Amino acid sequence: MAALIEIERLTKRFAGFTAVDDVSFSVERGEVLGFLGPNGAGKSTTMRMLAGFMPPTFGTARICGADVVDQPVAAKRHLGFLPEGAPTYPEMTVTGFLAFTGRIRGFRGSELADRTAHAMALTQLEGVRLQPIETLSKGFKRRVGLAQALLHDPPVLVLDEPTDGLDPNQKHEVRDLIRRMAPEKAIVISTHILEEVGAVCTRAIIIARGKVVVDAPPSVLEEQGSTLDEVFRRLTLGQEAA
Ligand SMILES: Nc1ncnc2c1ncn2[C@@H]1O[C@H](COP(=O)(O)OP(=O)(O)OP(=O)(O)O)[C@@H](O)[C@H]1O
Question: Where is the ABC transporter domain (predicted)?
């Protein structure tokens, strides 16, 4: 069976500057791929292209076999995407926003109510359900973003820094949630927290200057006595010097 995520030769140029350079990888069901790299390496740009939110200059991305450019609705049906930053529509309440995204996904009536309640329970948002998103703290805003990504229980999750801004307890909860969902899904998370990779990821890709410099399970990267931190510094500082 084909991988749930297939990226081939994905490239993005901005006015002569290449932010993502010929990136290819695929992710199978059951894999949690940690997407690592220094600031500006091209992680968010890759994730935005994979999620169909930014057209590539070159190359293709497919989600459950659907090309994100040619078959955007089919691709998005199978995708939950947590972008960087806070959810849009800051004036909506948490429950209003989640019901709105659920309706866009085609849910109505009791199914919409059940899915909204379940997404809030998974991300522990019940206590702020009637609060406008703009009045929430950074960590709660991230959790609203995560809740909308999970609402339709998609087989593919693309999560841009899912634990950014969360307190240690919430980081723990979200990592636990990712681990619980992992067997049924293909998940890509970007993170700057290297311990997170060991905690939840079955595989790690490090990119630097838009190029993949390593693609291996964390345990393999940590062989020969190197910590992931040392591997990251060696590979990415080497790239910067080049
Ligand atoms: N819309 C845009 N126009 C021009 N340049 C852009 C645009 N979006 C991103 N870039 C540039 O592309 C490069 C990659 O950015 P990107 O946000 O993908 O990096 P990142 O790896 O996610 O970084 P960080 O870890 O800081 O979030 C950066 O140099 C950034 O300035």
Answer: 5-234
* Cβ-based neighbour number of residue 8 at 10 Å: 14
Q: What is the pLDDT of residues 24-41, one digit of tens each?
A: 999 999 999 999 999 999
DSSP single-letter state for residue 167: -
ipTM: 0.97
Is the distance from the beta carbon of residue 44 to the nearest atom of ligand 1 less than 6 Å? yes
Q: Which atom of ligand 1 is nearest to the CA of 46?
A: 18
Q: Give CA separation, 105 vs 69, 124, 125, 149, 171, in Å.
A: 19, 22, 20, 11, 28
**Ligand 1 closest atom vs CA 41:** 21
Ligand 1 close to Cβ of residue 152 (< 6 A): no
Domain boundaries, the chain: 1-78+155-168+179-242, 86-153
Question: Does residue 224 have its Cβ closer than 6 Å to ligand 1?
Answer: no
CA-based end-to-end distance of the chain? 39
Residue 55 Cβ < 6 Å to ligand 1: no
Rounded to the nearest angstrom, the distance between the alpha carbon of 43 and the centre of ligand 1 is 8
Tell me which fold the domain 1-78+155-168+179-242 belongs to: Rossmann fold (3.40.50)
